[in-house]
Each structure stands twice: as structure tokens, then as C-alpha cells.
Amino acid sequence: MPTNPNDAVAARAKAYRDMLRAIPGLDGMYRLAAALVADPAPPTRRLLIVGAGGGREIEALGAHATVLDITALDPSTDNLRGAEQVAREIGVNDRIRFVTGTLDALPPGPAFDAATSLLVMQHLADDGAKLAYLQALRDRLRPGATLIHADVSVDGPKEFARLVPAYLAHARRAAIPDDVARIDLNKIPDMPVISPQRTSALFVEAGLAPPREVFRSLWYRCWVSTRPDA
Questions:
Q1: Dihedral Cα 176, 179, 185, 190, nearest 10 deg
Q2: Cα(86)–Cα(84) distance, rounded to whole angstroms?
Q3: Alpha helices, DSSP H only, in the chain?
Q4: Mean per-residue pLDDT for 87-116?
Q5: pTM of the model
Q6: Of 191, 169, 183, 142, the residue nearest 16 (C-alpha)
Q7: Domains of the chain
């Protein structure tokens, strides 16, 4: 068991990455998100990464991060420490402002040219919390800004169940330990997951453009939206 704080961060990051490796092609979602926010990227382009803990988005941006002004936001200090470690390893930590907290920790007002929200909203209840989250994101985006959003999203328990055999087959072939592969299977049924149709409706209600789906692997989906100019 790691005793050094950095070792503990690395161990948590490895476990999380192993879990995500069980999803075929999920790394591609992060690379796609990075491409969409970094190309083209003028030197003054300001990027907000919500749920930045672990550093997957920063890692995917790689050298592109050197031409961005990045704010990395996460409610977990420990998780954010992992993102800082990734940023140091690829030499971009001087381009990133790390903020512990939720969107409320950021100054109000439209300050960002782009934002990523990857696998964040899926943890919020659809009792007004998801809508409030999207509204808070919209309020911090400049008109015309891009939002890359990803969540677990299925039409219901039956669709999820139909996808499980394919998930397990890939996890076995990728040599993912069974206990790691089953993390998703155990937690997703208890998460406040919503359908793609409901996701689209919430975006529109929050004042964002209808999202366009650009990636899907099993129950993970990624969309692109914008804050309208007017």
C-alpha cells in the first residue's frame, strides 16, 4: 500500500485508467475532445476543464496545452493533485490554473472560449441539479463558445443490460481484472443516468445549442454544443 502521497495519487490514477480501459475506444473520446477545443487555438484561447481530476483531458491535450490558458476545476483536492502531476510530467503546469471546487468557485460571467465536461453531470440527480449545472456552465462560456460534454447515457436499464456482454468480452480481451471491470457494472445502475433525448432537452432548457453526438462506445456518449451568439 503506497505511503507517499504521490504514490497514492499514482495508484488511484492507475485504478481509474484500468477501469476506463475496459471501455473500447474511450481514450479516443479524450483525444477527440482535445482536438475539438485545441484546433484552431489562438494564444488567448481560454479553456475550462470541469472534473479535471486525474488529468485525462490535460494528457490528451499534450503539447496543444501550451497555446491555451487553462482552468482545471475539480471538487476533490486529491484528484486534482493527480491532474497537477500529469501537467508537470508533460511540461504544461505553468499554463494551468488549478481550482478546487465546483463551478460556483469560479467568478461569474462569460470568461471561457471552450469547456469540457467529461463524465461529470452523470453523477448529478435529474431533480434540477443537472439543469443548474448546465446553466452554470453556459453562464461561464462566451457567446459562440464550444462545450464538449460526455456522460453515461442510455435509454433505460434494458439497453444497459444488452450492452453488458460486449463490455465484458472486451474487458477480458484487454486483460482487465474482473473486479475492476465490474466497477462500472455495479455503480451505473445506481447512478442518475438519463437518456440522450433527455440530455438534449436539458441543454436547450439551459440555453445551450442542441448537442450533436460525436462519439459513442457502449453506454458512454460525447456531444458538442455551443453557447448561442444571441
A1: -140
A2: 5
A3: 5-21, 26-38, 56-61, 77-89, 129-139, 157-173, 178-187, 196-205
A4: 94
A5: 0.91
A6: 183
A7: 5-226 (3.40.50.150)
